[in-house]
Amino acid sequence: MNQVPFIAVEGAIGAGKTTLASMLAAELDMPLLKEIVEENPFMERFYQNLDEWSFQLEMFFLCNRYKQLGDTESKLIRQGQPVVSDYHIYKNLIFSERTLKGREREKYRQIYHVLTDDLAKPDIIVYIKASLETLLARIAKRGRSFEQDMDHAYLEQLIEDYESAMSSLAVTEPETTIITVDGDSTDFVADPEHFAHIVSQVKSRISSGHPR
User: Fold this and answer.
1) Alpha-carbon distance 72 to 76, whole Å?
2) Which of 11, 77, 79, 198 has a C-alpha 20 to 30 A away from that of 133?
3) pTM of this prediction?
4) Which structural domain range is residue 16 located in?
5) pLDDT tens by residue, 42-67
6) Catalytic positions, written as ranges
């Protein structure tokens, strides 16, 4: 692992990534890096017409996350400052592989690798694995208007895509520890013991200096 930990929290839409990342950052006294979501000007149009707006949406996310992570790497990580992020840059491929097709998908893959291959990668990924029922309940609770009519089939496919992505990252980024949280049975917001268990796992990986 790096001398200072770079922790990313991941999971499908509605899993609770930002909530858990914020809680971990506060508990571990680390800066929090939050992705831009609602500020994406293509978001509502994307949910209304996926084929028409997918490329614009994905490029906006990619460029903004690239800038965020690049700044974080130079200003914090290289200066010895641990960081908690509510995303891993790899999520761009997870989503774009599903939303883009043909030449647009291939162009996006090329741009993704040019921008991200030399970015710092997380030492620890806290992966919140949750069922469709749990995700839908949390999406409804947070009340983002553009998410309320989300296609359930799209969300179910995203759950499978995240499972495949975590398996892939375990192979392609073997230096990264993946801590899986059962989002169906774990309520890290309402139950202090559940959150304490996650914190304990993270601290154990940090103190050991050995990702596995």
Assistant:
1) 5
2) 198
3) 0.89
4) 6-208
5) 666 676 667 777 898 899 899 999 99
6) 86
